Amino acid sequence: MRLFAAVLPPPERLDELGRVVDRLRGLPGAGGVRWASRDGWHLTLAFMGEVDEALLPEARARLERAASRTPVFPLRLHGGGHFGRRTLWAGVAGGLDTLRLLAERSDAAARRAGIAMGEHRRYRAHLTVGRGRGEGVAMGPFLDVLDGFEGGRWEVDELVLVRSELPVSGVKGEQPRYERVGSWPLGGGGSGAG
Length: 194
Known about the structure:
- By secondary structure, the protein is an alpha+beta fold.
- The protein is built from four helices and nine strands; from the N terminus they run E-H-E-E-H-E-E-H-E-H-E-E-E.
- The chain has helices at 11-25, 56-68, 96-112, 140-147; strands at 2-7, 33-35, 43-50, 73-83, 87-94, 127-132, 150-156, 158-165, 177-185.
- The strands form two sheets. The protein has a five-stranded antiparallel beta sheet with strand order 2-6-5-4-7. The chain has a four-stranded antiparallel beta sheet with strand order 3-1-8-9.
- The radius of gyration is 17 Å and the shape is globular.
């Protein structure tokens, strides 16, 4: 199964972002963007890719430990940016140091559970809202709208393991499907990785 560890913003924060994305969809050039569905919006902490189900019990135990060692922390969706001409995202503000720590612990938990993770890179918090089709799109008009976005604050209080199923039908506009397969409350402030 294809898995990743994530933080899921609460529905009211996704609604705030949704109003901004609705504005983005009305801009010139928006047809050149494949917009991510709201029910799939998340902050990926550690992408695990295809995971053998035999590794899942150990991964769950290690992710639970990573969550228990990480304190609850504040976040808000804020502004936005892009990766090249292909990926448009909403940014994050607030407890970024703790978010990075949770991402590092999630990555370490997966590795220690025997999951073959990709190359380790410094965590960059973002929530993907769209991807340019073909050669991509000019991002300037979208960034102008995202620049002033300030979402409300929330307390991140859980680590979530998500299963994703990529579209296979070939139907235009079909989106990946996401399913929660585990979640663990954040806890104290100890040190160490899962």
